[in-house]
């Protein structure tokens, strides 16, 4: 099957202390892929000198955060008193529910290079006001499929299921494909998919993708063909997928909601210090930006 690939170009954004990232979701032309509603790709960045990553305490509502590393070491803290190191191939999954605060920073004794993804999953209506919680999964299934290795971060692949608890039909895989191979990744026809080329040029469904580009494939495909480009010995991809999300979302700053009133109340709660605190972060929390002058509307 030939894949119908749309190519989405990242926009540059800054996080925390001003570190630059490639923001692939949301875009004006593509708001979500299934319930995946946010995707930042950062690095590889040199972090052996200076403070490295510094994302001060900040609030979330209505979402799950997914932290995924390809290289490096990051320390997560949150207002549930979680303190967790994240390493490559391990999954941090934080469920904000009605409200949580967290921070991320480069850890002491870290490797010299930091490279990873930060993703959000929109919680459906039935789950988005629930209690916050945090989970770390260090032992994820890795499926050897021909010459390729597929790490199952979210969802299921060839009978192997991630232990991560999510609330919508979703998939999240890291796929490593050796040079010289053209790997057919079997996928669900009722899911739409997005594919990030992690390390350099690679081919997705016959289309050349480089870091800073997202390959989007609408529902209806049964496989996605992945291969290295330019004579590379190995290509790594991160694949997100899900059933098209039927709820209209309103996203602003770190909040995923359904109405402007919810966003305004969440911002007021943060400004008034009504969100729970993160203990141990060496710095002040993030200040909330000003609300935009035009009315916020769900999309």
Q: Care to describe what's here?
A:
This protein has one helix at residues 260-271, and strands spanning 6-9, 11-15, 19-25, 36-46, 54-60, 63-71, 74-78, 83-86, 91-95, 100-106, 113-122, 133-137, 142-145, 148-154, 156-157, 160-161, 170-178, 183-186, 192-197, 202-204, 207-209, 213-217, 223-228, 234-242, 250-252, 255-257. With 299 residues, the chain is mainly beta. Strand 25 (250-252) and strand 26 (255-257) form a beta hairpin. It starts with 5 loop residues before the first strand and ends in a 28-residue tail after the last helix. The mean pLDDT is 95.
Topology:
Blueprint: E1 6-9, E2 11-15, E3 19-25, E4 36-46, E5 54-60, E6 63-71, E7 74-78, E8 83-86, E9 91-95, E10 100-106, E11 113-122, E12 133-137, E13 142-145, E14 148-154, E15 156-157, E16 160-161, E17 170-178, E18 183-186, E19 192-197, E20 202-204, E21 207-209, E22 213-217, E23 223-228, E24 234-242, E25 250-252, E26 255-257, H1 260-271
Antiparallel strand pairs: 1-22, 2-3, 3-4, 4-11, 5-10, 6-9, 6-11, 7-8, 7-10, 9-12, 13-14, 14-17, 15-16, 17-24, 18-23, 19-22, 19-24, 20-21, 20-23, 25-26
What can be said about this structure in brief?
The chain has 299 residues and is mainly beta. It has 1 helix and 26 strands. The mean pLDDT is 95.
């Amino acid at each position: 099957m030939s894949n119908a690939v749309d190519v989405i170009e990242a926009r540059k954004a800054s996080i925390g202390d001003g570190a630059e990232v490639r923001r692939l979701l949301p875009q004006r032309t593509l708001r979500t892929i299934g319930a995946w509603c946010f995707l930042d790709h950062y690095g590889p960045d040199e972090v052996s000198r200076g403070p490295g990553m510094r994302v001060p305490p900040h609030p979330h509502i209505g979402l799950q955060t997914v932290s995924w590393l390809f290289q490096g070491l990051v320390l997560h803290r949150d207002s549930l008193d979680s303190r967790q190191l994240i390493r490559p191939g391990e999954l941090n999954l934080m469920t904000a529910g009605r409200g949580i605060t967290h921070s991320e920073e480069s850890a002491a004794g870290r490797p010299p290079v930091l490279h990873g993804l930060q993703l959000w999953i929109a919680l459906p209506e039935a789950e988005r006001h629930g209690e916050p919680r945090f989970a770390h999964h260090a032992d994820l299934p890795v499926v050897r499929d021909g010459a390729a290795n597929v790490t199952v971060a979210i969802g299921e692949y060839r009978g192997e299921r991630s232990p991560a608890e999510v609330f919508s039909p979703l998939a999240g895989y890291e796929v490593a494909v050796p040079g010289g191979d053209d790997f057919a990744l079997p996928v669900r026809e009722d899911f739409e998919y997005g594919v990030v080329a992690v390390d350099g040029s690679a081919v997705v469904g016959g289309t050349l993708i480089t870091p800073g580009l997202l390959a989007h494939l609408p529902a209806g495909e049964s496989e996605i063909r992945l291969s290295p480009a330019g004579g590379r010995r190995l290509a790594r991809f991160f694949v997100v997928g899900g059933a098209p999300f039927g709820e209209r979302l309103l996203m602003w700053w770190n909040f995923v909601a359904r109405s402007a009133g919810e966003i305004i109340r969440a911002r007021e709660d943060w400004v008034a210090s009504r969100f729970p605190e993160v203990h141990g972060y060496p710095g002040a929390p993030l200040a909330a930006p000003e609300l935009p002058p035009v009315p916020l509307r769900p999309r």
